[in-house]
TrEMBL record:
The lineage of its organism: Bacteria, Pseudomonadati, Pseudomonadota, Gammaproteobacteria, Alteromonadales. InterPro entries: High_potential_FeS_prot, HIPIP_sf, TAT_signal, TAT_signal_bac_arc. Transmembrane segments: none annotated. It comes from Brumicola blandensis. Residues 1-31 form the signal peptide. This is High-potential iron-sulfur protein. Residues 29-97 form the High potential iron-sulfur proteins family profile domain. It comes from the Bacteria. GO terms for molecular function: 4 iron, 4 sulfur cluster binding; electron transfer activity; metal ion binding. One of its GO terms (biological process) is aerobic electron transport chain. Pfam families: HIPIP.
Length: 97
């Protein structure tokens, strides 16, 4: 059984917290390019910049990342790309309240 003292535990916890925070910042920093409608993945998932499906848009999708209120945000379905918060694609899944 490993014996971890309080000082080692705090160092490990602090390092983990910093790593997770910087990892999230790096993910958002990598997503800089707006998704184009002619992108192969966008075409495959039938992405549009403005949803025509009642009650379904990127801003209320489980896959969207970033802060509410931003017009263009990162999306898990399109790594490295930004989607319009008013957009929609076939990968849409309701974000839990």
């Amino acid at each position: 059984m490993n014996n971890v003292n309080r000082r080692d535990f705090l160092k490990l916890s602090g390092s983990t917290l910093i790593g997770l925070t910087l990892g999230g910042v790096a993910l958002n920093a990598n997503a800089q390019e707006k998704l184009k409608l002619d992108d192969p993945t966008a075409m495959a998932l039938k992405y549009v910049h403005k949803s025509e499906v009642e009650g379904k848009k990127c801003s209320n999708c489980l896959l969207i990342q970033g802060e509410d209120g931003q017009e263009w945000r990162p999306c898990g379905a399109f790594p490295g790309k930004l989607v319009n918060a008013n957009g929609y694609c076939s990968a849409w899944a309701l974000k839990p309240s």
